[in-house]
Amino acid sequence: MEWSPLIISLQTAAVATVVTFLTGIGLALLVVRMHRFQGLADAVITLPMVLPPTVAGFFLLLLFGRRGIIGKFLLQWDIQLVFTWKAAVIAAVVVSLPLMYRTARGAFEQLDPDIVNAARTLGVSEWRIFWRILLPNARAGILAGLVLSFTRALGEFGATIMVAGNIPGVTQTMSTAIYAAVQANDYDLAGQWAMIIAAISLLFVVLLNWWTSWQTKGVRQWS
Amino acid sequence: MELMVRITKKLRSFTLQADFAVKDELLALLGASGCGKSMTLKCIAGLETPDRGRIVLNGRVLYDSDKGINLSPQERKVGYLFQNYALFPNMTVAGNIAFVVSGNKAEKERKVQENLSRFKLQELAEAYPQELSGGQQQRLALARIMAADNELLLLDEPFSALDSYLKWQMEMELKCFLQDYNGAAVLVSHDRGEVYRLANRIAVINKGRMETVHTKQGLFKQPDTLAAALLTGCKNVSAVQKMGNRRIYAVDWQLELDTDMPVFNKAAFAGIRAHFLVLREKVGDNTFVMDVVDVVEDVFSYLIMLRRKDSEARPVRLEIPKAEWLQLGNPTEVNLYFPPNKIMLLER
Fold this sequence. Notes:
Largest sheet of chain B: 6 strands, mixed
Largest sheet of chain A: none
Strand content of chain A: under 5%
Structural class of chain B: alpha+beta
CATH superfamily of the largest domain in chain B: P-loop containing nucleotide triphosphate hydrolases
Number of domains of chain B: 2
Oligomer: heterodimer
Distance between the termini of chain B: 35 Å
CATH topology of the largest domain in chain B: Rossmann fold
CATH topology of chain A: MetI-like fold
Number of strands of chain B: 21
Radius of gyration of chain A: 20 Å
CATH architecture of chain A: Orthogonal Bundle
Number of helices of chain A: 11
Strand content of chain B: 25-35%
CATH class of chain A: Mainly Alpha
CATH superfamily of chain A: MetI-like
Order of helices and strands of chain A: HHHHHHHHHHH
Structural class of chain A: mainly alpha
Strand order of the largest sheet of chain B: 7-8-9-3-10-11
Largest interface: A-B, 16 and 28 residues
Distance between the termini of chain A: 47 Å
Number of domains of chain A: 1
């Protein structure tokens, strides 16, 4: 069995999750503090979650293709993104970002605003408030967002196949490998990849739930 | 230490106008909920921005709309005691204090220890806020404010969420702290007893408009306005018409009354506290025959609702010790005397 789809998938998802993690938290903080256009900004960031991934992929092709705004710009330095594994990373970031952003935003908004205000009146800088108060007290939500966006990135298919294609050994991920195997009538291979993706995703979500229940031990639940 | 505030801010249903000065004393802002008193504190602390005005603390301009000065909350050095204390849940008691102290490591440690012992928290240094009792949480919140070298103390309804026994204990603790604090402080509350016991001077805020600042004795003896009378706990008020230099007609009670106070032109209401009304043997000056409308047994007294005989007037409330009322043997009518020196004339 050729293992490259597993490695490409893990590599893509890992890089995408780092980008998603930082951008998602940044955008969440930005939107929480917005006074105007908050609803519009939220909608734009959330859109990839509700759109068909092929639509997200189509827009990415328009942007990063040879004639796209960004694609043309990058071509000046001889950088071409489409049909490379970097394009798979971009596709994974765009579709997993809403999950990170929404869970992080929810976690920040659940914090008592008086706690942040108290820190301000006590002379604590906004930067220290972020690192020592916002992040630690929102860690459950942020970790949930991290796991959700990683598993989402790992299984990404629609946008990936449009911008990165399905080149074995280069851009073929586990999910595109399943598609190719089914097309070639190789149900055994498709089944193997399906099991592997399911197993990895299950493992991460179970770990998250263990950690969460350990963290909230002793906290009263409504049921 | 001295604070001067003169601000206006337009809010949803009224415009907040606050104008006062505090110098090494505790000033209380007394007002009903939603009257703008918490907003006033938030503007002083820099958590909200007024539309116009000027705030000066110890000669430092914190806010000046004309000069475009608006310091951040971090730069203001204004301590704010939140209603729920707003302790940092992810830090220990010592951590909560250390987090807000500036200086090098040795200085930090010294200040943490100093404030732990000042607020009797040494044994709880490694505990987390959720493990503390209400009183301990309040002490930690105060310790944190002191450790941050603030120049002013703002107290935002510090006891409003507590039951009465705990409230009393916390109030005693706060009083104890304030006795050796000696700086300027502003307390916001809707509880007349609380502000009377804690504050030196009291200002009433009514729908965002701040009324004249009084000593607490002065405010309770002769409130200026209807709102101030109600906030200080006056149970009986009536609209009035001027009948003479010292004579009024109380429209709601349907009674003509003599007053000690000359009836000034802006007098629109009269009020009398329930425990100042007196029962008499005979009808006479300022004494009327009243029907007993209702008798309510309170904890230590009876509250008797009395209305002018054979009328549909608004009843007045009389508060009378239990034994005294029981002696009368449940009368259906009584003679009620309104002492002229206890009748307060109020502006709208």
